[in-house]
Structures are given as structure tokens and as C-alpha cells.
Amino acid sequence: MDFDVAIIGGGSAGYASASTAQSLGARVAIVDPGPLGGLCILKGCMPTKAILRSSDVMALMRRAKEFGIDPVDPHAQLSAINDRKNKLIKEFADYRIGQLNDPRFTLIQERAQFISPHEIRIGDKTLKAKSFIIATGSVVADYPVPGLEETGFVTSDDVLKMREAPESIIVLGAGAVAVELAQFLLRIGVKVTLLQRSSHILSKGDEDLARPVESRFREEGMDLYTSTKILRAEKEAEGSAIYFEHEGKEKQVSARFILQALGRRPHIDGLKLESAEVETQKGRIPVDAKMKTNQPHIFAVGDVNGIHEVVHIAIQQGEIAGYNAVHPENEREVDDRLKASVVFTDPAVASVGLSEKECQASNIAYLTASYSFDDHGKSMCLGETHGHVKLLCDPVSGEVLGGHIVGPEAGELIHEIITLMHFRGTVKDMATIPHYHPTLAEILTYPAEELLEQLSGD
Fold it and tell me: Among 313, 321, 458, 307, which residue's Cα sits nearest to residue 396?
């Protein structure tokens, strides 16, 4: 029970750490009590995208008449939707379990607990390692809404197990998980009320990215309230009620269930980090660009460090930590210049690099230009005209600093901007790269051309 590197957690970040460290010659242990697979596969990215496909198909079917097709009235079977999701998730999880059980690693299915900076307790044994990588992910966070605990609520984990759709639901929160599940439930026939504390949904991003999504939600029948203050929850005979302030007045809404989707928190419970003398800050494990904690031989990657709660970044962090744990003499750093995010609503929202909010907060000079999908040929042919694309560039060099898309296939289109930024491309590059017509992707050339004109004018 003596290893070069011990990884606590076998999800996407943990497996990336383990695979990288082992490929560099380290003796690697992975400690995970199970169920094996990780958050992305079991409760996050993959199951939510599987069920969203069903509600997207339903939404298109309801629009049949718009495309010259006889109207249809689709009905969802949540049990069948979840059966399809479960089949896919088992396939993904089985593949990951096979990877974790590879004889390259020592897999230990126990809970880990630090007993010193170089030792963890697993079951009745002690494991020693030169380096540790903490990759324990996140769990649903508790928020102090008066009466909510007594009233009862469901979480995103519960929604993914539902066999019958409730008649109505109140969604608390408007981050990625909240809005994706809210629209899913709305489209399969649930009466949805969404309450958001900030002035717009998806409040971490720029306001102009949120507004087209809000418009679509309201068009589809969602009751959406922003700039609210949640006062209390109360139990009712047929469900639950939330009392909240909105536009200076106290209001009340009732539903069968409350979905508490106010966020997640790093999962550090039971690790006894104090025994390893690892510092925490507001419930997360702070790290530097090398993924090191305050203890130079202990790293933290993925959701547990609270930097960016998305899986591809967790994998990047895991690879960097795995490398640095084996090569402390030649350490690498994570470059978050290309941090990207996608919210799989309809319209979808995707971003890479800097937002206007971030530029303004850090006094970074920028130019910006947008172009709307409702004035773009291919999106008009598709009937997908909600949203726009937006580019930010350096006002001198024209290098693209950030790109944002709210609209059809945003999660796919964003990779054109990611690729451009990876090579430190400029708006001139975007404008001059040939784009096939008619495609959704060519819309990106329009704000690029506008920015090029602004640069030339200067």
C-alpha cells in the first residue's frame, strides 16, 4: 500500500490524472467508494443530454405545421425517456469502469480519509503515497431557504430518476442545471415556474446571452420571474408553495414539487483535510495554476477546486496534476484562456474566453460586435431565429478575446471560435477563412467583418 501517486475519486478528472501519471511511469492507486463512473456520466452531462434530446424532439413535433407537415400532438412517457437514458448511461459507465479496473492501476473501492499529509485511511488499512490528487467532484448544495427542509424538495438527481412527470414544479435557481431541466420538464408537459434571484438567468454570463433563452421559455409557457427574493417555503395539502418578493410585492406560487437547483458545492465531506493540513476556502480547495494545494504534493482537480465546473476543464486539470505529480522538476500550468461553457437549452448558450462582464471588471480594453440569427439565411430556413453571435477582440491587434453564441447548435459552433483562439487568431482571420454557404457557421464572419472595419477605421 505504498504508491507514487494516489488519486481520490475515479470520475473524469480522477481518471485523467491516473492515466497521465501511470503513462509517465508512476505506480498509481485510485480510491473511489463507488458507484463508479463519475458525476458527468452518472448524474451530470450525459444523462441530462440524453433526456433533453427527447424533449427537443417533442418541441419540433409540435412545430410540424410551421414546416408544412400535418400537426401532431406528442405525449411524453417519462419512464420510457429514462429507460433510454439508463441504457446509454450503463454503456458509458461500463466503459469507464473497465478503464478504472485496468491492471495499470490499483483500484480500491473504499472511502479515503487523510490521517497525515502523506497517508490516507482506507477501510482498515493505511495507504502511503508521495503525491495525492483529490478529485472527489461536487454534490448538491444546501441553501438556507426558510421552511424548505421541512416542506421537502427534489434535486437534479431525483429528476433523473422520475418515472412519472409531476403536474407542476417550482424551479429554484437559473444556472445551467436549473434551466436545462426546467425546459425539459416544460416541454414534456409539466407546468413550470422558475424563480431567479439575479436580474437574468445564467447570471454568470453576459445579460444579452440570457434574454433570448428567457423569451423562448416564456413563449413555451414557463412562468419566469427574475430579480426575486425567496422568502419561505410552506407545505400544502397537494404539494408545496414558495413565497417570494418580486417588483416590490410579495407573491406566492404553488406546485406539486419544488426543484432545488441553486447550485452544487465541492464534495470534501469526510476527507479529513485538516489531518493533511490542506487549506480550504468557503468549502472548496484552492489551488494554483499547477493544481497544487497549499501542500505542494497534494493536488485538487475538477469540481472540488471550484474553478470551472465543466468536465473538459476537469480533464485538463487532471492531466496537468498527473504530470506535475510525477515531474515536480518540470511543472506545467493550466491555461484557462480558452475556458469554455455550453448550456444545452433551446436556444443553446455557448461561450469561450472573456465575457464583457469580465473585461469590464478587469479593465481590459475590447471591441465587440454581434449579429442576429433572425437575419441569417440558414437559420431562417431552419426556423431557428432566436439569438445571436458575439465576438470580442483586442482593439489594437484584433486578436479574438472571447466568443459567445446564443442560438441553434451553439455548442457545436463555439468550437470554430475555440479553434481560432487556440491559434491566437484575429477577426481578420475569421473574416477571411472560407465559409460554406448556406451554413450556420458563416454567421460568425459578419461580426468579424464589422470589427475589422472598426479596426481599419481607427
Answer: 458
- Domains parsed from the chain with CATH numbers: 2-140+265-336 (3.50.50.60), 148-262 (3.50.50.60), 347-457 (3.30.390.30)
pLDDT tens figures, 125-147 = 999 999 999 999 999 888 889 99
What DSSP assignment string belongs to 238-282? Answer: TEEEEEEEETTEEEEEEESEEEE-S-EEE--TTS-GGGGT---BT
Digit-coded pLDDT (tens) for 298-356: 999 999 999 998 999 999 999 999 999 999 999 999 999 999 999 999 999 999 999 99
Structure-block grid coordinates of residue 73: 400532438
Q: Identify the CA nearest to 169 among candidates 195, 153, 192.
A: 192
Of the chain, the end-to-end C-alpha distance in Å amounts to: 65
Confirm if 299 and 291 have CB atoms less than 8 A apart.
yes
Q: 482506507: which residue's cell?
A: 122
CB 4 within 8 A of CB 21: yes
Quote the CA–CA distance of 444 and 438 in Å, as a whole number: 12
The partner residues of 315 in beta bridges, in order of sequence, read: none
Contacts of 142 (CB under 8 A, 6+ apart): none
pTM flag (> 0.85): yes
